[in-house]
Each structure stands twice: as C-alpha cells, then as structure tokens.
Amino acid sequence: MADRSLPRFLLVEDEKNVGSTLVERLQKEDFEVVWVTTQEDAELQISGRTFDLALLDVHLPDGSGFEVAKLLRLKQPSTAVVFLTAFGTPEDRIRGLELGAEDYIVKPFHLKELMLRLKNALKRAQYLSGSLEGSNIPIIIGRAKVHFLKFEAEADGKIYSLTHKETALLKFMVERRGLVVSRDEILNQVWSEDEFPTPRTVDNFIMRLRRLVELNAEQPQVIKSVRGIGYQLI
Predict the structure, then answer these.
(1) Which of 51, 164, 193, 197 could pair with 124 in a Cys bridge, judged by C-beta atoms 3.0 to 4.6 Å apart?
(2) Do residues 122 and 146 both lie within one domain?
(3) Which of 89, 26, 18, 66 lies closest to 10, judged by CA?
C-alpha cells in the first residue's frame, strides 16, 4: 500500500521513455507517482484519488492535457498543475496560464531543472494548503471577489482562474493589508531562490493582479506602489 504521507504526483505522459525516466527520478525523490498515458485514464484517476501535483503532457493520443487540467480545476483546485509539451507556442502558454498552471515546460528539458520546478510548485501548493485553512469565505479585493480555496476570482460577472503564485501573492498582501511590503519580502514568501526571480518578476505579477482588482489598472487605488520599496494593499 502506498504511503499517503508522501506527496502524490499525477504524471500524464504518453512517451514511454520520458514517462519511465520521470517515474524513476520522482520515486528516488520520495514521491508517490501515478503514471498514465491517456486523458481517459487521467480522468479516472482524478475521480478516484487526490493529488498534490500534476505534470501533464499537452498532446495526448486521445485528447489533451488542457482537458485534464480543467477537470482538476473543477475537482481538485488545490492541485498544482505543470504542463509539459514539445510545442512551446505562445497560444499554448497563454491557455495553460488561463487554466491556472504553475509552470509550462518545453521538451527537451534538463531533468535537474524540471525536478527543481516541480519541487517549487509543490512547496507553493503545500504553503497555500496550510495558510488557506479556514479561508472558505470569499474576500473582496477591489472590484474582485477572491475565492482562495477555489483558486478563483470573480469580477464583472466573470470567473478567472488564479495560479498558485497569484493566489499566494494575493494571500500575502491580504495578510499585510495596509502595510508596505517590499519586493524582497514578496520574493522570499512566494518564490524560491531556485527560480531565479527578480524584483521585475514581482512587478509583472502585480500588473496582472491589478487588471483583476482595479477599476483602472493604469491608476491603481487598491494595490498602491510605494516608490523605491514595494507595494501596499489598501
């Protein structure tokens, strides 16, 4: 019987050599791995058990990793999703982000780098799992109603998926509402050193969140900039 104290990964990859290599490496890292090769089998697994992280090949013989991600968003929104694909088109990347993906990795990849990215995604998921306990009540941030446990936000009657990074950043800002937080504080909480983030990374994420919560993202009144320091959630 598998040890459920270990993080459980759903690997959806139809290339046998890639899949077997990833399973072997993940198991060496003390992860429980469930490997399937089709969309149908992935959906069956999602219906029967929970996962901490899903690594999804975009192009599958009977469908798409995007469809698997949609089901995960519906059934298990706390599961971190990372896409793996041989085609890194801008359209696919955008679609992956819209589905709340943590990362989008293009083949061929460096195995060590992939493991670091997966571990970082898992760390964020575990941080959010702990910090979001009791957060079943939506929080109003500007014009948006944020459902942290669902990793969603509602604005102007539309539902928007939030990635784990976006959710972690919003949660961090809410916990420090009214206080000025530096870019370094945000980087230390939301990102990992292995991801090589920069202050500009924070700025880009703030811009994305402003488009969600502000009436006018060009003249922010909810997430204020504090020159030379960072940001303040009003």
Answers:
(1) 164
(2) no
(3) 26
Does residue 126 sit in the same domain as residue 146? no
117 and 52 both lie in a single domain: yes
Residues in the chain: 234
Q: 33 pairs with which residues across the strands? A: 9
Q: What is the pLDDT of residues 192-212, one digit of tens each?
A: 655 667 888 889 899 999 999
* Tally of domains within the chain: 2
Cβ proximity of 9 and 99 under 8 Å: no
Buried-exposed string 141-165: b where 16+ CB fall within 10 A, e elsewhere: bbebebbbbbbbbbbeeeebbbbbb
- Cβ–Cβ under 8 Å, residues 19 and 27: no
Q: CB-hemisphere CA count at 13 Å for 113?
A: 11
- The alpha carbons of the chain give a radius of gyration, in whole angstroms, of 18
Q: How far is CA 193 from CA 116, 198, 199, 223, in A?
A: 10, 10, 12, 25
Parts of the chain with a pLDDT under 70 = 1-4, 88, 97, 127-136, 192-196
d(CA 234, CA 222): 5
pTM here? 0.69
Helix (H, G, I), strand (E, B) or coil at 41: helix
Burial (Cβ within 10 Å: 0-12, 13-18, ≥19) of residue 55: buried
Q: What is the DSSP track for 154-186?
A: EETTEEEE--HHHHHHHHHHHHTTTSEEEHHHH
